[in-house]
Design brief:
heterodimer, A: about 280 residues, alpha/beta, Glutaconate Coenzyme A-transferase, 9-stranded mixed beta sheet, 3-stranded antiparallel beta sheet, 9 helices, 12 strands, B: about 250 residues, 3-stranded mixed beta sheet
């Protein structure tokens, strides 16, 4: 295969240079875990990871794998399974830079990026230590008000890549994302998307009037690869749930450096050998 | 049927669901988070008591989802003034209702790092009834001063703010908050607990009226509603909680 459809996730991972700014959705919204493992395998470094608006195991795996220099997020958690061990450890060690945010502020930055405008104003945040620690955010007088009315201005977020998993793609590179509007926003804000899907299908998704409104047109897509159960071990929309046993095993392993190294050897590097 | 039942018949979770439902009365649209079974249960009970007029959005639920606009839509509701009530927790909450969801010690190299602020840095300003809810009432949660302000309890007059802390619900008491005084006040103490116990386990000062009432138990009718209809509804979104508390399978 050539063109927009890549042979495998490793081909997509190879497109991401060190130092790239990437954005990812929450673990439940289509986190491209198989591609994430391929990124760790390839040994990508110094990423600026924008979580729209939060992350979980995906971010933890990237951090543990040494791929992340800066993380911009409103939270990192493995939810009901527990905290994110590699994230917590990296902060304690000071080995990553964190840009703490609040969810709608990340969305607003992405929306500004989507529109090609320099910033988006947003209520809230004034008086918080989130704002105090974000020198890239500004507070200004609302120019439309005669009263003293301060409002926060959030700079546009324009990642190099949006990285996520969708349900299916056609060979033109159109990708069905259903009702996941945050993925469309991320696609619009980013220079290109690298997307894995459950299956590559025949035909053109945009020609089906029922599928077209939930389909990301290929114009935003830099590469797409088939990855069945590509979100494993996290959940994918209503298609499949978390592999709870694996999530708990991951957390237990990732509490120590050695444990995490063992996990990577088995489930990240090991997978490459199995695929060869 | 309308008599409050005896305290020893009521599980703490059932009492908390009852209290939360009362606090939500009169709301048009309320939302609860994905990992909030008790607030979620309170929303569903309040909805029932409103004759199903109240709209309830539970994040992560398929049945109680009212959104098609993506992750940003909940926040847009708040900005538009549509969202009447929401719930926030906090690793630390202080006497001025400041909330810390980030961590303890010096930021950013926290001693203990929690997940992060989520939507609190926005929703706390714009949702009229923010109910603070913690299942742990101790001095490590209720501190004199939070180590990091994810979102402040009170804002200056020149900060746009239509929302804020409305009540604080814990397993031992119910508190209200006065934004002008920047202080909590004790509203009621749950049966089996005392004002002294609340004081001993709270790291900040709060106002205590001369007479502190005991928190009113649910009626037999309400308790039955919780154990049947509401338990079954909770099981859809919070299966493990429903199984543990009510013995209901999803």
């Amino acid at each position: 295969m050539s063109g927009i459809v890549a042979n495998d996730v490793d081909a997509l991972a190879a497109m991401i240079p060190d130092g790239a700014k990437i954005c990812v959705p929450p673990d439940y919204s289509g986190a491209a875990m198989e591609l994430t493992r391929a990124m760790v395998r390839r040994g990508v470094r110094d990423l600026h990871l924008v979580c729209v608006p939060v992350t979980g195991m995906q971010g933890d795996l990237l951090i543990g794998g040494g791929a992340v220099k800066t993380i911009e997020t409103s939270a990192v958690t493995l939810g009901e399974f527990g905290g994110a061990p590699r994230f917590q450890n990296a902060l304690k060690q000071g080995s990553i830079r964190i840009m703490d945010a609040t969810c709608p502020a990340v969305h607003a930055g992405i929306q500004a990026g989507q529109k090609g405008i320099p910033y988006m104003p947003l209520r809230g945040m004034i008086g918080s230590d989130i704002l105090k620690n974000r020198s890239d955010w500004k507070v200004q007088q609302n120019p439309f008000s005669d009263d003293d009315d301060q409002i926060v201005l959030l700079p546009a977020i324009n990642p190099d890549f949006a990285i996520f998993h969708g349900l299916k793609a056609d060979r033109e590179g159109n990708v069905y994302l259903g009702v996941r509007r945050e993925l469309f926003a991320m696609a619009g804000a980013s220079k290109q998307c690298l997307i894995t899907v459950e299956e590559i299908v025949d035909g053109n998704l945009l020609e089906d009037p029922l599928l077209a409104p939930g389909t990301l047109p290929a114009i935003y897509v830099g590469g797409v690869a088939e990855a069945k159960r590509g979100c494993w071990p996290v959940s994918f929309w209503d298609e499949y749930g978390y592999d709870g046993e694996h999530m708990r095993a991951y957390i237990a392993a990732a509490r120590s450096d050695d444990g995490f190294a063992g996990y990577v050897a088995e489930f990240v590097q090991g997978q490459a050998e199995a695929a060869e | 049927m309308s008599e409050a039942v005896a305290p020893d018949e009521v599980r703490t979770e059932e009492l908390l669901i009852t209290i939360i439902a009362r606090l939500l009365e009169g709301s048009r649209l309320v939302a609860a988070g994905a990992s909030s079974p008790i607030p979620g249960g309170g929303c569903l009970l309040a909805r029932k008591h409103s004759g199903n007029a109240m709209r309830v959005n539970i994040l992560g639920s398929r049945k109680y989802n009212l959104m098609t606009g993506g992750g940003v839509e909940l926040f847009d509701w708040a900005g538009q003034g549509r969202l009447d009530a929401f719930f926030l927790g906090g690793g630390q909450i202080d006497g001025e209702a400041n909330i810390n969801l980030v961590g303890t010690g010096d930021y950013p190299n926290s001693d203990i790092r929690w997940p992060g602020s989520f939507g609190s840095g926005y929703l706390y300003y714009l949702v009229p009834r923010v109910i603070l809810f913690r299942e742990e009432h101790t001095r490590r949660v209720f501190v004199p001063k939070v180590d990091f302000i994810s979102t402040p309890g009170v804002s200056d007059a020149n900060t746009y703010r239509t929302g804020g802390p409305y009540a604080m619900v814990s397993p031992i008491c119910l508190m209200g908050f006065d934004a002008k005084k920047r202080r909590f006040h004790l509203k009621s103490v749950h049966p089996g607990h005392t004002v002294e116990e609340v004081r001993d386990n709270t790291g900040f000062d709060f106002d205590v009226p001369d007479h502190v009432p005991e928190t009113e138990m649910p009626t037999r009718t309400v308790l039955n509603e919780i154990r049947t209809e509401i338990a079954a509804e909770i099981a859809e979104t919070y299966p493990r909680f429903a199984e543990r508390v009510f013995g209901v399978a999803a």
